[in-house]
Each structure stands twice: as structure tokens, then as C-alpha cells.
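Exercise 7b. C-alpha cells:
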């Protein structure tokens, strides 16, 4: 949250309301009866992270970018480039770092422990975008600072990614549909909700795919792109196998989850059936 606070909350509120209206108008799937509890506790996680960050760090990513963009260090300071080229390359390289970071969250056991809080949501909607353990949010913030120092992007690139990110975090987790032909075109240049749902499947092979943050090109380049979940989009189950759906919506459960033993995989019969809204008629 390094944008100027008024700008941040204006963008945050506009994105939240806009995506929420889209979810109501064109839902992908009916959500559980836990909707209010989920939203309240996901919001509590966001608030806890904001308080936590305020206590341990006052560093702004934009100010850090201003400090390093003309230093002797950083990839983009090694060769002369126009400002436009530096901005474009800065955005691409920072997004690549986010892809690699996400890969690490799935490959490194201690990082997966905190990241599984995000994946244990048995529903997926715009609120899932802010469902992160405060430790994960802090780690991601520190890694973002490290990426800025390493890349030395213009402050404009950092600001652009922050502005886009406020909107895209809700957009990519939206429980909503695009017309199929439009979705296929859009996913060529942007992570779409349908593409990201694959990643939130409870199948491990699906979870290790579609790791991109903003752009889909890194998944295609590094072989982690998956067009659809193993079970198909109409039958895919969201969440983590072995996590009780009701328990996983609790705030204390989410805060304690990184310190708990990994759940045993559940049998198919113990996971409630979820039918796409378009199929169920709801």
C-alpha cells in the first residue's frame, strides 16, 4: 500500500464495487452460505496486514525506486535506455519477479505454509484476492523492495504496477464470466479470472500452474501454463483438500494455518458439490 492513501482507497473502493457488481450480474458459480463471514474475515486479514506493515516499515516502493533509478546499480542502469523503454522493461521485469516469487511460494515448503492460507478458500470471488496471511504480505513486500533495487525501474513503472494491481487483484479472482470468445482473446495479454481459477483448483497439478501475476506470458514461456483444470471448469473444486470449508473461513484458523500440520486429503464425498451458476440456473 505505497500509493498516496487517498488515491489508494479511491481505487480500492472503485475496483471492489465494480467487480462486485460484475459478480452479481454474471456469476460464474454460486457461492456458499459463508459469504458474509468470508468477506468479514478476509477484510480483517487485510486490516491486520496494514497495521503490521505500519509498525515494521515506513518505506515506500515509489520512493525506493526514485532512490535507485539513477544509481550505479540495477539492471536498467547498466545500459542507456529511453525513459519509455525503461518504464516498459521495468513493468515487465517486476512482473517476472512476481511470477518467480509465486513459483517459490509453491516450491519452498516454509513459504507454502503461509501461502496455503490464500488457497484454502473453498470459494473464489473478489475477496479471495485479499486473503493472505500477514506474514505472506510482509514477505511479498520485502521481496518487492528487493526486486526494485535489483531492477532499478523508473518510479513511473512502480506506480503503474501499483495502480493496475489494486484493480487486477479483484479482477483476477472475480466470480464472474466474460463471453468465451472475449475471454480467449483477453487471456493472451492479461491473467483472466478463468485462467486464475485453474490455479485455485484443489488438484496439486492445477495449483502449480498459471502462476503469473499480471501477464500470462511467463507461464507460457516457462511451461507452467494450463488451459483448463484437470476436472474441467464446470466440475473443478476450489480450495485445499482436507480443509473443512466452514473452519477455513474463520479468522483464527487463517492466522494459525501456517503453524498447523498439513491436512490429510479428503475423500470426494466429504467435499460439497459446487455447480456453476449458469448450469444450476441460480
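Sequence design result:
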Amino acid at each position: 500500500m505505497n500509493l498516496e492513501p487517498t488515491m489508494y482507497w479511491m481505487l480500492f473502493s472503485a475496483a471492489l464495487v465494480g467487480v462486485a457488481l460484475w459478480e452479481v450480474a454474471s456469476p460464474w458459480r454460486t457461492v456458499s452460505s459463508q459469504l458474509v463471514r468470508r468477506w468479514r474475515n478476509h477484510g480483517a486479514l487485510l486490516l491486520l496486514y496494514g497495521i503490521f506493515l505500519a509498525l515494521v516499515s515506513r518505506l515506500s516502493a515509489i520512493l525506493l525506486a526514485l532512490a535507485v533509478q539513477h544509481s550505479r546499480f540495477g539492471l536498467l542502469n547498466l545500459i542507456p535506455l529511453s525513459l519509455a523503454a525503461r518504464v516498459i522493461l521495468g513493468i515487465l521485469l517486476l512482473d517476472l519477479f512476481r511470477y518467480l516469487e509465486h513459483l517459490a511460494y509453491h516450491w519452498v515448503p516454509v513459504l507454502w505454509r503461509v501461502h496455503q492460507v490464500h488457497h484454502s478458500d473453498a470459494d473464489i470471488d473478489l475477496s479471495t484476492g485479499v486473503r493472505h496471511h500477514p506474514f505472506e504480505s510482509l514477505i511479498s513486500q520485502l521481496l518487492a523492495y528487493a526486486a526494485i533495487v535489483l531492477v532499478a525501474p523508473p518510479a513511473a513503472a512502480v506506480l503503474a504496477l501499483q495502480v493496475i494491481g489494486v484493480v487486477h487483484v479483484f479482477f483476477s479472482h472475480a466470480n464472474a464470466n466474460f463471453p468465451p470468445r472475449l475471454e480467449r482473446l483477453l487471456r493472451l495479454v492479461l491473467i483472466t479470472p478463468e485462467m486464475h481459477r485453474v490455479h485455485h483448483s484443489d488438484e496439486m497439478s492445477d495449483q502449480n500452474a498459471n502462476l503469473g501475476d499480471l501477464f500470462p506470458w511467463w507461464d507460457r514461456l516457462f511451461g507452467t501454463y494450463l488451459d483448463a483444470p484437470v476436472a474441467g471448469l464446470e466440475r473443478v473444486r476450489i480450495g485445499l483438500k482436507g480443509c473443512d470449508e466452514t473452519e477455513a473461513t474463520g479468522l483464527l484458523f487463517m492466522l494459525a494455518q501456517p503453524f498447523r500440520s498439513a491436512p490429510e486429503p479428503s475423500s470426494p464425498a466429504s467435499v460439497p458439490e459446487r455447480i456453476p451458476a449458469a448450469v444450476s440456473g441460480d
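Instructor comment: The longest helix spans residues 83-107. The chain is about 55% helix and 0% strand.
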